[in-house]
Specification:
The protein is mainly α. It is built from 40 helices and 12 strands. Strands 3, 4, 5, 6 and 7 form a 5-stranded mixed sheet that branches. This is Bifunctional glutamine synthetase adenylyltransferase/adenylyl-removing enzyme.
């Protein structure tokens, strides 16, 4: 560390080294000797100025000859430059002129500052003036060039300018020596330029102009850079348009503006000259920034921002940072701007962009004691002088105290301390005083210590604070391994990027700011081992509801709902997708008792679902088909969620899950049929052959519906049958034949089932199992169905008939269908049993070849050897091959009870039957869990291999015997 003895020596040593370099350059020796004292004074204080001297001799010579390093009329210097620039005839020369002027004036300014020829207040003002001049000179030149090429964007008050808002310290005329500049661009009105041949839209004109202006300032050339330009403060940040017209700007700040944007806008200053257009923009922004009443939401927002600053200090341990550290420049600025937000609407004298007038007026208004303000201003300028000295050393944007002896020596010299340690001692006192003032601002009891070390506090930091991946991983190191923490960091970072493109408004952003830490906290508590798979699922749900703050509030205000959501999403990708697609399901989580289904009998379940559906439709007019369809779908979604949640929790075994899903489909089919029947009879009347309370119509369910084995997302295999005589027609004023009526009825049912509404599809219904398949009638006569099954159906169609049953219809039709089914299934096949076995086996192998993906990484539990379909085919073979001997085999359409009947008929042993039933339930349970997990293939394990071996053994025994 530098001491008093070494400061002068270090500075003198570097001054001499740089002087030697200058003597070896192209400067005339006589000229150098003439100005040696002045030049060597600065060469030991700033490598930046020394670099300008060595690489830009013309620039350095002008500084010395015009004595700009001593005293300067900055307004005159800037006016002369602006006049010269107007004569520039190419964009290439424009870029060069800007960079040379910047180098010249900033080197001269650093010279004046480091030799203490002017106050820090003057330096801040001059830096800001130079920035204004460079920005506006470049803008004016480019505006003229673009107008000459594209025409002028005219408005009601003459040519429209692109109004440039300088933000932050630029707006407050307190710009750092080496600083980014934050800008926002706007223009008054949409329209077109006045080019006589090829006008372009104003938006296009100003976007091109903005892009060229940013490039003119930001681009690094051999002559350097003017300013790093940051446009992220504009509406919607990086995802927003580069330039917005006044109307869009006003809409954004009215509807979408955040509290931090109000805070940022306090310092927003229009760099363009005063005009009617500029006044319009001021009038748009003022109501957004300053409220006419004491705004308590602002106080809460300031408290939140203050808490974030404090947490960042603790987390990042920002020692040695005179801007962001405890008691740094940021805390002074935050102190002043907070009072502006709270009181500025009523006390218009506080509506200033510059810090010193604001603090002075706080004292005048007796909001803060005069002595405290005087001390705060003194401390602020001490910090700003230190900051400028740090940055003028090497023209770097830094606020970190140095660890090298040269910079330490320069700071001690410029700040007028005998040694660097003395400077540090004073700096510590200054920053402690500033931090004490900061802590008194809208403070809460204990808010500095509250949950500092708790997991929840760290989760808040993880979401709310900007941090690097390393910092994030360290924050959660005692909870997550490094790989999981890295994945979590990337997922949260990407989600924040998505949010910047959402228009969720201040309320939504505030709620999300509270909800996300809670969600991360409960995830880590409940599912830390699965968090990298779980978070994307939860984010998909949150993304779906970001525009609907009611649902965000629901999750934030009901921790049990949030915990339940996390639990369900952790266990099921299918449930996640359902909730993501249909957020109304979140309401179901408010009543967790609903999610614990009871194991009741099918008739009781049918009655419960029917009653619940009836109650949900009480407020729906019967003729409001659209609302009716929506209610059916919402009812199905809610009931499915309840069933799935119970499935996950283990309160429902697999057979009961399928029972409930099947009964749910039956209840909804009944409702759909009633509605379709009412609509058709209102239009055409009823078929004349019917007696009272008859419909002459039957819905038959095949496959999973017929076998009481529906799963999540299963489609419905249906066949429609009627019993109308050939000459029957409807009895309405608009008559149609009965056959045509039933075809229209089938079409209407299919429409009501298959149509997608906001809540999706009710069911995907499939009619391909009807007689003659897709080429057959949508609704066939009972006699036609019977004839087809008796004379034309293939063996595989009889296999399908094994799992067919009546879902709804008139009693005579129900009985007639049952008789047809029994007669067909119980028929003694004319071919030998071995022929039937060969046909079934051949069909099974053909299906496996067609449907089984041999390249898949896991097991297809339906189509693999020893899988679900093998059991189904064995069951169908037993029914077709033996029911003429054992009619009880056709009594039931579901596999479990058929296997029981097969055992009672003596076709297999009791042990074999129990093993086969157990294998079937195991495979179906795994298949259900795959569906819930959003996966198609299972991972092989000992249990599945044992089951498959058992099924394959039974398969071989069954068909070898045949």
């Amino acid at each position: 560390m530098c001491t008093e003895k070494t400061i002068n020596g270090i500075i003198q040593q570097h001054a001499e080294e740089n002087w030697q370099k200058l003597q070896g350059s192209d400067y005339p020796a006589e000229w150098l000797n003439q100005h040696q004292n002045a030049i060597t004074e600065i060469l030991g204080l700033s490598p930046f100025v020394a670099e300008v001297a060595l690489t830009k001799p013309d620039v350095f010579t002008r500084i010395v000859m015009h004595q700009w390093h001593k005293q300067v009329d900055i307004d005159q210097v800037c006016s002369e430059f602006t006049a010269r620039l107007a004569e520039t005839d190419s964009e290439e020369k424009l870029l060069a002129a800007l960079r040379l002027f910047r180098a010249e004036q900033m080197a001269a300014l650093a010279w004046r500052d480091l030799t203490n020829r002017q106050t820090i207040q003057t330096s801040l003002s001059q830096t800001s003036k130079l920035a204004d001049t460079l920005i506006m000179a470049a803008y004016n030149w480019l505006y003229q060039a673009h107008s000459a090429r594209y025409g002028v964007p005219q408005g009601p008050d003459g040519p429209q300018p692109m109004l440039i808002l300088g933000m932050g310290k630029l707006g407050g005329k307190e710009l750092n020596f080496s600083s980014d500049i934050d800008l926002i661009f706007s223009y008054p009105y949409k329209g077109e330029t006045d080019h006589p041949r090829k006008p372009i839209e104003n938006q296009q004109f100003f976007t091109k102009l903005a892009q060229r202006l940013i490039a003119a300032l930001n681009k690094t050339t051999p002559l350097g850079q003017v300013f790093r330009v940051d446009m992220r403060l504009r509406p919607f940040g990086d995802s927003g348009p580069l330039v917005a017209h006044f109307g869009a700007l006003e809409d954004y700040y009215q509807d979408q503006g955040r509290q931090w944007e109000r805070y940022a806008m306090i310092k927003a200053r229009i760099l363009n000259p005063a005009s009617h257009y500029a006044s319009q923009l001021e009038a748009i922004l003022a109501p957004f920034i300053y409220r006419r009443y004491l705004d308590f939401t602002t106080i809460d927002a300031i408290r939140d921002m203050k808490r974030l600053i404090s947490k960042e200090l603790r987390r990042r341990r920002l020692t040695g940072n005179i801007k962001l550290g405890a008691g740094g420049i940021r805390e002074v600025e935050f102190f002043a701007q907070s009072f502006q937000l709270i009181h500025g609407g009523r006390e218009t004298t506080l509506q200033s962009r510059e810090l010193q007038p604001v603090l002075t007026r706080l004292a005048a208004l007796q909001i803060i004691e005069s002595q405290a303000i005087s001390q705060l201003l003194e401390d602020y300028y001490f910090l700003r002088k230190t900051e400028h000295t740090l940055q003028q050393f090497n023209d770097e944007q830094t606020q970190m105290l140095p660890d090298n002896s040269w910079t330490q020596a320069v700071i001690a010299r410029v700040m007028a301390f005998p040694d660097y340690q003395a400077f540090l001692t004073t700096l510590t006192v200054v920053m402690e005083r500033v931090h004490a003032q900061f802590n008194q601002l809208v403070s809460e009891p204990g808010d500095e210590q509250q949950e500092q070390d708790s997991l929840f506090s760290r989760c808040k930091d993880a979401w709310l604070l900007e941090m690097s991946e390393t910092e994030f991983c360290e924050l959660l190191s005692d909870t997550l391994d490094e790989g999981s923490a890295q994945a979590l960091f990337e997922q949260l970072r990407d989600f924040k990027g998505q949010l910047s493109r959402h228009r969720i408004g201040q309320r939504g952003e505030d709620t999300l700011g509270k909800l996300m830490p809670e969600m991360i906290y409960y995830m880590l508590r409940q599912c830390a081992t699965n968090i990298t798979q779980l978070l994307p699922r939860l984010i998909s749900v949150i993304s779906a509801i970001t525009g609907r703050t009611t649902y965000l509030d629901l999750l934030h205000e009901n921790p049990d709902v949030l915990k339940q959501l996390i639990k369900l999403c952790a266990r099921s990708a299918w449930i996640t997708e359902q909730i993501r697609s249909f957020p109304l399901l979140l309401d179901e989580l408010l009543t967790p008792l609903y999610l614990q289904q009871q194991q009741t009998s099918l008739p009781v379940v049918y009655e419960e679902y029917t009653d619940e559906l009836r109650q949900s439709l009480l407020r729906v007019e019967p003729d409001d088909t659209e609302l009716l369809m929506e209610q059916w779908r919402q009812f199905k979604l809610c009931q499915q969620l309840r069933i799935a949640a119970s499935d996950i929790s283990g309160s429902l075994p697999i057979a009961k899950v399928s029972d409930k899903l099947t009964v749910l489909a039956e209840v909804l089919l009944q409702a759909v049929f009633k509605s379709a029947w009412q609509q058709l009879t209102d239009k055409f009347g009823a078929p004349s052959h019917l007696r009272q309370d008859e419909t002459g119509f039957l819905i038959v369910g095949y496959g999973k519906l017929g076998g009481y084995e529906l799963g999540y997302g299963s489609d419905l295999d249906l066949v429609f049958i009627h019993n109308a005589p050939q000459d029957s027609e409807t009895n309405g004023t608009k008559k149609v034949s009965a056959q045509q009526f039933y075809i229209k009825l089938a079409q209407r049912i299919m429409h009501l089932l298959n149509t997608r509404t906001l809540s999706g599809q009710l069911y995907e219904a499939d009619l391909r199992l009807r007689p003659s398949g897709n080429s057959g009638l949508l609704c066939c006569h009972l006699s036609g169905f019977e004839h087809y099954q008796e004379e034309e159906a293939w063996t595989w169609e009889h296999q399908a008939l094994v799992r067919a049953r009546s879902i709804l219809g008139d009693e005579p039709l129900l009985e007639a269908f049952k008789q047809v089914r029994n007669r067909v299934l119980q028929r003694q096949r004319q071919r030998e049993l071995s022929s039937l076995a060969n046909e079934v086996v051949k069909m099974r192998l053909k299906m496996r070849d067609h449907l089984l993906d041999n390249q898949a990484s896991g097991l297809d539990l339906k189509q693999c050897e020893g899988g679900i379909t093998d059991i189904e085919f064995m069951v169908q073979f037993w029914v077709l091959g033996y029911s003429h001997q054992f009619p009880a085999l056709t009594q039931w359409p579901d596999n479990l009870r058929i296997i029981e009947q097969v055992q009672q008929a003596g076709l297999i042993s009791k042990i074999a039957a129990e093993n086969l039933q157990s294998a079937y339930l195991t495979l179906r349970d795994h298949y259900h869990q795959l569906t819930l997990a959003g996966e198609k293939f299972a991972h092989s394990n000992e249990e599945l291999e044992a089951v498959r071996k058992l099924v394959t053994t039974q398969w071989q025994q069954t068909f070898n015997q045949a």
